[in-house]
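Lecture 7 notes: from sequence to structure.

We start with a single chain of 198 residues. Read the sequence below before looking at the structure.
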Amino acid sequence: MALLGDLEAFPIDDVLRHLGATGRTGCIAIEGGPAEVRLWLDHGRLVATDVPWVRAGVEAAETMFELLRCPAGSFTFSTDRPELPLGREGYAQDVEVVLAGAYLLLDEWYELLTVVPSLDHHIALRPRLDSPQVVLDAPSWRTLVAVGAGKSVAQLATALDVGELESLRRTRDLLALGVATLVDPMGSAHRGQTSPDR
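Now the structure, written as tokens:
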């Protein structure tokens, strides 16, 4: 028996919660977003995902976080399960646990956007420091080198081979260290703040 619907009317987290609570086994196919997505369930547990724009091997919660950010499209759930893709299997996690982790990442995403307004903002090294010295750990140094003469937050993610969430985190950390500043897509300087006014 197949189930189908529109994600605007039936969000993917509600669909997963229902299928998990009823112990269903099958595959959810999602179309209409950036690329076709498939999620595999086994007796109500999430066992694998194939989300093309998410790197293989990331935690199930991070994959679900990416899906929650792309709410458009339609879904079909079928008990016919296509073969699991290599590198996308091995979760076998409770749906509620995965969703709880995804919601935490989504909260962090919105908090980061109060410091780094968009992935299109560019990061530029500051010509002068406010403090006499700055101590960098290894990840911060790698990020600083990747920034070089300037990159957008999205370009930084590609250069470091990390997700957009991690790129926002690293940009926030450089701003907090006082070694970088942001330039908005229109070319105006944006003052990065670790505790922005709300």
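The chain has two domains: 3-112, 116-190. Keep this in mind for problem set 3.
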